[in-house]
Amino acid sequence: MQIIDPHVHVWKNDPRFPWAPETTSPPAEDATAEMLLELMAANGVEKTVLVQVIHYRWDNSYAADVMKRYPDKFMGVCRINPEVPDAADHLSRWTEDHGFHGVRLSPSVGAAGDWFTGPLMLPIFQRAETLGVPMLILTGVERLVDLVPLLEQHPDLDVVIDHMADCSPDAPDKLQLLLNLARFPRVYVKISHTWSISKTGYPWADTFEQVKKVYQAFGGSRIMWGTDWPVCLKRASYAETLAVVRDEMDFFTPEDHEWVLGKTARRLWKFEE
Length: 273
Hints:
The longest helix has 15 residues, at 254-268. Strand 4 (103-105), helix 4 and strand 5 form a beta-alpha-beta unit. The two termini are 16 Å apart. The chain has helices spanning 33-43, 61-69, 87-96, 121-131, 148-153, 172-179, 194-197, 208-218, 238-248, 254-268; strands at residues 4-8, 47-51, 74-79, 103-105, 135-137, 159-161, 187-190, 223-224. It is built from ten helices and eight strands. It has an eight-stranded parallel beta sheet, sandwiched between helices. It is of the alpha/beta class.
């Protein structure tokens, strides 16, 4: 079984890759590609998707450098500033000139995220659809209602909902807002972050019913795991974020297990061999 991690962040305290001006408290500890490669080797993870970390904001240079140095191991998802008129052109540049395959938008559920309902979204979604790169959405489940019209207008765009929209197991009514998106055949869901929404320790079993509902709605070929390393380290080790899906969630069929652990990601990110 090929295991692919579709969600990690990397960074390095290095003047060649400066933090964004908005980053007032940059991380003291590095989370480098080399550290990640050691974890991958120790846990049987063959390939990984780098998701641009917020500390760099819209400068994706470090992830681009990592992909260039390790093209057989990493692909990347960039960030662009969604509130500037030429955001779509920025996406084209990072995709066509630097090899990124995907873009991530992170609208909050409050007023600060209302840009997601504004006129700048259509050009970004259209450009991602034209480029053939997936759109990752990091948000709370309440914001998903604003995603629906964009999905309806861009049926050929692959869209990935990160971390089950961080819906708490205590809010099953809100989970329905995520499950409703299953009617769009190109919407995918990461069942990551169970460690974050759980009220218990490993294996965070109070989240299993929620994962089952997502699985039943989307099917194995449209869901995938993910470590969210090193963010996960506040509550879970890299190994645990894999083990919980590989060893503890026994409700997947053998075929769907392969999809969740690798084949779904491989469908969206076609790695070099």
